[in-house]
């Protein structure tokens, strides 16, 4: 039971950090629901991200900072911070991405990724609807071979983005 609480604590801490740190410059909240594939076993995952307004631009690519967390029904949790990316594709479509190093807790189940330090990358395509947007995004979490074991985990999620 203590391990389950530790996983939930990590997710709660990440959400609190996101809300506290990003309030002043936040541009978007992104909530996702999807599935993770770990060694051919699936888990349902809920994710939460806070993206700053764009801070840098390189051509059409807009970069900002973000905080993110996910929690799975297998009690695994991730909380991280890093760089976000957005590429507008006309009036409604866009490509989104992020790279967030962070801390991972396997929840005591068979979702051991080899280390507590993991890197989460996300790449998705979305469509703006009024003040919000929906997107379909693929994700990958890995320790980049920093540990002896690095099975990684892949995910697919449907995400809702709302600006404020």
Structural overview:
The chain has 164 residues and is mainly beta. The chain has one helix and nine strands; from the N terminus they run H-E-E-E-E-E-E-E-E-E. The protein has one helix at 2-22, and strands at 26-38, 41-52, 56-58, 61-72, 77-89, 93-105, 117-129, 132-142, 153-163. The model is unreliable at 1-8 and 10-24 (pLDDT under 50).
Summary tags:
8-stranded antiparallel beta barrel, 164 residues, mainly beta, 9 strands, 13% helix, single chain
Helix and strand topology:
Blueprint: H1 2-22, E1 26-38, E2 41-52, E3 56-58, E4 61-72, E5 77-89, E6 93-105, E7 117-129, E8 132-142, E9 153-163
Antiparallel strand pairs: 1-2, 1-9, 2-4, 3-4, 4-5, 5-6, 6-7, 7-8, 8-9
What is the structure about, briefly put?
This protein has 164 residues and is mainly beta.
Reported for the largest beta sheet, the result is: 8 strands, antiparallel, barrel
DSSP strand content: over 45%
Helix content: 10-25%
Secondary structure category: mainly beta
Distance between the termini: 37 Å
What's the helix-strand series? HEEEEEEEEE
Low-confidence stretches: 1-8, 10-24
Total number of helices: 1
Q: What is the total tally of β strands? A: 9
- Identify the overall geometry: globular
Strands of the widest sheet, in order across it, are 1-2-4-5-6-7-8-9
> How much is the radius of gyration in Å?
15 Å
Rounded average pLDDT = 84
